[in-house]
Amino acid sequence: MSDPILTLQGVYTDIAQYHILQGVDLQVPRGEVTMLLGRNGVGKTTTLRTIMGHWRAKAGKVMFDGRDIAALPTPAIARMGVGFVPENMGIFSDLTVEENMVLAAVSGPIDAGRLDWIFAAFPPLKTFWKSHAGNLSGGQKQMLSIARAMVEERQLYLIDEPTKGLAPAIISTMARALRELKQQGASILLVEQNFSVAKALGDSCVVMDDGRVSWSGAMAELAASAELQERLMGLSMEAHQ
């Protein structure tokens, strides 16, 4: 792999007395969608939060675009061009959709063309622009969460289970928006439990188990092998859609 945008080398992260990440090594190719897969509780969310600086790595390197960001605060990482969509959405329910978006635009006023693209990807956000985010449906809140990360062009997006609990029509909307984001040249590291989404979007894949990377390779290779899926994750993609 030449010139990955993100590389983790021997990353260890502890949370309280628990040793969550135990030597994570992974790479995210530039301009591709990398799926981060594995059973619940193996360290996927901790990996994203460690990259973003929410949790501090005890050891190892987190190299973003050639620079070790492991010791940087979260705002500095965001300003370098990393967008983050947490599993809990991270929106401000008491603020309007517009106010949520304005707060996410750390570099200044929202670009009009960028906003038009977001409205085309997620039409409900335009409809409820002046409404409080707490009044949105679950799917609309997830749209807002992703849109907040997209409000400025980022080099890398870290996205944690964006389709969890959503209806199929909204999942299709999410997948289409992420595909368009990739077409714009962005790199994406995506945690996803919906294997049909992973298969459709993923270029490469990293599978975690017990705080370490147990396998990495092409998403197509994993998708094509039920035996590999069973060995790495204890289930097959076809049986778990």
From TrEMBL:
Transport keyword on record: yes
Q: A Gene Ontology biological process annotation?
A: L-amino acid transport
Annotated ABC transporter domain ranges read 6-235
Gene3D superfamilies xref list = P-loop containing nucleotide triphosphate hydrolases
Signal peptide range equals none
In terms of PROSITE patterns, this protein maps to: ABC_TRANSPORTER_1, ABC_TRANSPORTER_2
Q: Give the InterPro entries listed for this entry.
A: AAA+_ATPase, ABC_transporter-like_ATP-bd, ABC_transporter-like_CS, BCAA_Transport_ATP-bd_LivF, P-loop_NTPase
GO molecular function terms here? ATP binding; ATP hydrolysis activity; branched-chain amino acid transmembrane transporter activity
Q: What domain of life does the UniProt record list for this protein's source?
A: Bacteria
Q: Which keywords annotate this record? A: Amino-acid transport, ATP-binding, Nucleotide-binding, Transport
Among CDD domains, the record links this protein to: ABC_TM1139_LivF_branched (cd03224)
Family, per entry = Belongs to the ABC transporter superfamily.
Which PANTHER family does its entry note? ABC TRANSPORTER ATP-BINDING PROTEIN (PTHR43820:SF2), HIGH-AFFINITY BRANCHED-CHAIN AMINO ACID TRANSPORT ATP-BINDING PROTEIN LIVF (PTHR43820)
The protein in question is named LIV-I protein F
Species of provenance: Thalassovita gelatinovora (Thalassobius gelatinovorus)
